Structure formats: C-alpha cells, structure tokens
C-alpha cells in the first residue's frame, strides 16, 4: 500500500466485506483477501488474514467459553503442542 486515495477505501471495503461474511459463512477472510491482494503484498495480506482470523475466532471462543469442556479439549491441546513444532521443523 503506497497510500494512494484509491487503496484505503478499497482496503476498508474489503475488510467490511470480510466482517459481513464472517457472520454468514466459515471462510470470511477469503472475500477480504481476494481484494487485499490487489493493493497489498502477499506477505501483508497473509499477516492480516492470520491476525483477523485469530481475532474473530478468539472472540467466538470467548463468547462460548462456558460451553467448553477442558477434558474434551485436552487431546487437541496435546496434539497441537506436539504436532506444530514437529511440522515446523519438518518444513525447515
């Protein structure tokens, strides 16, 4: 983004569209990312996708925190704690 007057409204429109779709489907950032890639670098777009994804999903988890059962989540947490570092090391 070099700050032209066209890019900021397009970025805000893409972000709004992604937020609107977030309430309607499981893949909201695809809508925003499709427009972000026209005005941002792929690295910037990927960073925003990860950041907004964590924000949206974190809010959902926070709202549903009373319905979560820790004993049912434990296998997923253990699997992620072992699998993520292993996967990252295999990729490098």
Written account of the structure:
- By secondary structure, this protein is mainly α.
- Helix 2 packs antiparallel against helix 3 (42-63).
- Helices cover 78% and strands 0% of the residues.
- The mean pLDDT is 81.
- It has one domain (7-91).
- It is flat and about 50 Å long.
- The chain has 4 helices and no strands.
Count of DSSP-assigned helices: 4
Considering DSSP H and I runs of 4 or more, what fraction of the residues is helical? over 70%
Distance linking N and C termini:
30 Å
Q: How does the overall form come out from the CA principal axes?
A: flat
Count of domains: 1
Secondary structure tally: strands: 0
H-E order: HHHH
Features:
single chain, 92 residues, mainly alpha, 4 helices, 78% helix, flat
TL;DR?
This protein is mostly helical and 92 residues long.
Helix and strand topology:
Blueprint (H helix, E strand, L loop, with lengths): L6 H16 L5 H12 L2 H22 L6 H22 L1
Helix pairs in contact: 1-2, 2-3
């Amino acid at each position: 983004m070099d700050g032209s007057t066209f890019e900021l409204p397009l970025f805000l429109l893409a972000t709004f569209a992604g937020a609107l779709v977030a309430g309607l489907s499981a893949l909201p950032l695809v809508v925003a990312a499709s427009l972000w890639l026209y005005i941002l670098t792929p690295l910037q777009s990927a960073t925003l996708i990860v950041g907004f994804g964590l924000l949206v999903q974190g809010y959902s988890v926070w709202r549903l925190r009373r319905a979560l059962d820790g004993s049912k989540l434990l296998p997923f947490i253990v699997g992620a704690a072992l699998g993520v570092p292993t996967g990252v090391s295999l990729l490098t």
